[in-house]
Amino acid sequence: MEETAIHEFDFALINEYFVGLERQGPGSPEATIRALSFIGNLSDESKIADLGCGTGGQTMVLAQNTRGTITALDLFPGSIDKLNASAEKLGLRNRVNGIVGSMDNLPFQNDELDLIWSEGAIDNIGFEKGLNYWRSFLRKGGFLAVTNASWFTDERPTEIEKFWLEASPEIGTIGHDISVMQKAGYVPVAAFTLSENCWTDNYYIPQKIRQEEFLNKYADNKTAEAFIAYMRHEADLYAKYKQYYGYVFYIGEKI
Ligand SMILES: C[S@@+](CC[C@H](N)C(=O)[O-])C[C@H]1O[C@@H](n2cnc3c(N)ncnc32)[C@H](O)[C@@H]1O
Q: How do residues 152-164 score in pLDDT, each as one tens digit?
């Protein structure tokens, strides 16, 4: 039987599922703060963009650990509403503005930004394309920090290779992704892998309750059932093959 790739499910359905979760991708406050530790020269005047921000899990951590203003952008209005409400609640609304938009059509000026952040989202437009396109909005000496799924080994079992090539066709090894970053005009400053709890405790485990809620709400809806089956399959594959792949934080400086 042919497997369905995640991008073949209904966009509204995927978003409704994910907006009910604190995070929409693997990650953690510790990883966000560790990536920030490689970035210098931020001030009250700094302009930061968080692209594919989702409901803003990492945006709030960024805001609490930097100065300057953050524009957080996502395609899905429901996530942006939730992000702006969280910023309000945390007293960060004067520095954090969530806007609806697409990461391949950014509303910034050339050389305007000091830092571009993006966790788990760049592959929606492609790692290489995103790095190249986003670079023009960064000032010289500005930084980019993104997480992206990468292979940890040169070879891996066919089952996991096939799954990820369908979900994220550009997936490469860490060495490959660093060289893509360098070719796109950044000095690679750091790269580190995200720990297992970023995938389990912060991503797959919270989904278990969400999946039950979703299946109850969409009883007998074949698309919803197939989507939940896909998400469960993805989590099972992670448990089976986590030594072969994971998210990597890539940090680069524009030259
Ligand atoms: C895996 S989630 C990551 C969300 C969040 N950064 C996190 O780590 O929790 C990917 C996000 O990218 C957003 N997205 C997908 N395509 C996009 C596009 N073209 N422009 C802006 N956002 C997009 C999705 O709506 C989703 O919120």
A: 999 999 999 999 9
